[in-house]
Amino acid sequence: MTRLPSRSGLSVAITALLTCQSAWAQQPESPGSAASVPPQATIVYATVAQAAPASAAQQATGETGAGQPAQLDAVEVRGEYIPEPMLQTAEVASFITREDFERTGDGDAAEALQRVSGVSIVGDKFVYVRGLGERYSSALLNGSPLPSPEPLQRVVPLDLFPAEVLQGMTVQKTYSVKYPGEFGGGVVDLQSLTIPDEPFLKFSIGGGGNSATTGERGLTYYGSEDDWSGYDDGTRKMPRELQNAIATGQRVDLGNFSREDIRRIGRSFQNANLNVLQEKDSIDPDANVGFSAGYSAEMGDDARMGVIAVAGFENEWRTRFGDQEQGFFVGDVLEYDSDYEFLSTQNNARVNALLGFGYEWGRHRIGLTTLYVHDTIKEARSRAGVDNLAGFEARDDYTEWFEREMLNHQINGSHAFGEYDDLKVEWRAAVARATRDVPYEKGIRYENVDGYWAHDASRVQNYTRFSAVEDEVASGGVDLTWRLPVDRDLTLSTGASYMDNDRGAWSREFRFLALDGPLPFYNRYQRPDYLFSDYNLSQDLLRLRETTGSFGAAAYDATLKVLGAYAQLDGEITSNLRATLGVRYEDATQAVHPYDIFTGVRQPGPEPLRNDYFLPALTLTWNIAENRQLRFGASQTIARPQFREMAPQQYTDPDSDRLFTGNPYLVDGELTNFDARYEWFFGSGEYFTAGVFYKMIDNPIESNVNFAGGTTFQSFLNAPEATVYGAELEFKKYFDAGFQADWWTGNRLYLATNYTWTDSEVNADEDDTVQPYGFATPVAARLFVRDGSVLQGQSEHIANLQFGIENEDTGLQATLIANYVSERVSARGRPGQPDYMEEPGVTMDFVLRKTMRFGERPVTFGFAARNLLDTEFHEYQERAGQKVNVLRYEPGVSYSVSLSTEF
């Protein structure tokens, strides 16, 4: 912020212009382009131009119009240390830069975000901002919405975005009408790499391991020769015989096909390579390789073009050994429905690639970006224990393949007009597609009979599933910013956007069942590949039967179309008070259409959600002193249910082994948000901030656990109301160690820490009702919602600490990173039962980077150790000191090393 007196002259102009030149010297030069002027310099320059006398000749002589020397006053420039992103935005926001990625050594966007104040990561991929679940946060790539390959979420899992393809990330915690109206905790805007300043070529190679996995025993299954790459070689492709049978539109069973047809279709299924679990004596170490290159060149007068390419591959193994329990409290007495120990080994292979092209001329820029991510998890797991509901000791074996893929094409542009960028036009268009393919998801149950595991294909059964999700998003938008020709710095912004999100999902399930009663005695003890052999199928000892749709719809189509427009006014009220006032209008139609997977006929259900909203937002920034400011924000936003939450289709979560069923009666949630934050920037890259926030939520969506027909499943409902409030503290500073030594020259200590306290309350009055899935009419809310309970997913305490050493001259960065997240509700317990709780606890990481030179070539060595405290994952239910370990395991300590060099 700049404040000038009413009288000024040549000395004032010189002082201000020297300030501008100092700022310009730190910016990339673009001759003749006012776009290269940094915001601080632009403000000073424009104000001087307005305050100086009209005649340039008078300024040159240093005289006023009356021929007298000018009376000089001081020029006060505010915001000396305020980072440029903080200076440009009126909202409460946090920023992750390319340098932050290097310091913490995070491999993907999800890992990096857990260092941000008020942010926690659930399931290693979904972001929770200020204790609000992933439904209250959205992710954008260069301002465009993204599709999701996840069956349970419309939000994109952020572990899909490797750090190598990102220039930075913005986490905005107060709402701006330029963003989509689905905003609760915050929005995460990922910025991909742009035109490089100069050509470069970089290679990297690395490896690593895990204390609970690498070199230890684990489980696997053969699959195909190409499984290490994450791409199936065709082995798991649905058999042609089965495809032809499905094409008839009939359920595949003896009622619609001949006995010989059923035999032939059953024999076409892959057998030994996918059914047989194998114990691997020593699990392989992790490995990764990366490549990036950039080129830029001048293209004549004030024009520049650039190309950037990034590609990488990583292969990682992780083994989990732990407990899975289901319990039921009768008063304070705990009874177990089931009690298992499990062992799981996952092999995760990821391929990523980014190709970007940019062209700049004058104050105009056009960019093209294509991002490709292919991520596959191959899992083998087994569990054994007592199933009291079934009445015997059981063992379940699983072999699974989860293949996710995302392809995003985007074009965007920016055009500035006028001497001081008085008019700016920005536009974007994107087409993105995400898929999730799960072929041959197999499970088989055994019963312990006299110390031997037996499968009779009757009392205990098996399944083979094929499923897929395809999610597509087409979007576009334009933003216009006009600096109004008035005495004050006042900007009018307006824009429009469109998003069309379409999703299709289907699942087919098949079982091999005994034809007439249980299998013969000796066949029950056969190894799986012998059990499902062609001989047994040809002899009718087993027959194939499709069980698709036995528990509800097996397929659905979904759509969400959003048309948005906004207007916003931003400017100075006084010399040290700035305001942004805007309103966004959104018209949206959201629908989920379950259909009969055999006939394609849509099943009856609720009408689509058709809503339009006017969403206002106000922010105030008060520059109370040099480098100190207060921000205030108020807004109204919404939270829409996700597709899978509305689809009455059963889905098994492989991580928890819980069944999920959607609720087609869900409605939009509406939020009212208030924020205030104090910011003090006391040095370059050093700051202290303190903030408070308060949110009121109507119709928040929560996940609840139910029990029916001997099956525990998880669904969703709208609670009546909830409030969330809390406070945030953040501090960052560099320190001098206070001693001198040759080996310490150039080193400085670095400390960054943040803490967020959050409290929440879900309210359900006696006369409130909710509409759970499976109930024909609304029921009393307190049957499913505990009045006064905390909001699902909300942790009371979130704290982060980074402490390290940096030396720019020697290329050294060593950082110790600690993270603490207190317990939170992962799901509501079934009526009368305690909630499911998750306890993330304390994690600690260490990251080291050191650049060395071999001749003229720099080589960077990297080392990272994750989860040094070996903190376990623990989800549980508890009452009267008794605890049910719903899911518990130790992820182990992970280590990685890398070498990279640049040409």
TrEMBL record:
The record's similarity note reads:
Belongs to the TonB-dependent receptor family.
Which residue intervals define the domain TonB-dependent receptor-like beta-barrel in the entry? 534-786
Q: What Pfam families does the record tag this protein with? A: Plug (PF07715), TonB_dep_Rec_b-barrel (PF00593)
Q: What is this protein called?
A: TonB-dependent receptor
InterPro entries given in the database record: Beta-barrel_TonB, Beta-barrel_TonB_sf, Plug_dom, Plug_dom_sf
Leader sequence residues: 1-25
What region holds the TonB-dependent receptor plug domain?
Answer: 89-187
User: Where is this chain's protein located in or outside the cell?
Assistant: Cell outer membrane
> Which species is this UniProt entry from?
Luteimonas rhizosphaericola
Alphabetic keyword roster = Cell outer membrane, Membrane, Receptor, Signal, TonB box
Where this protein primarily resides, as one coarse class?
membrane
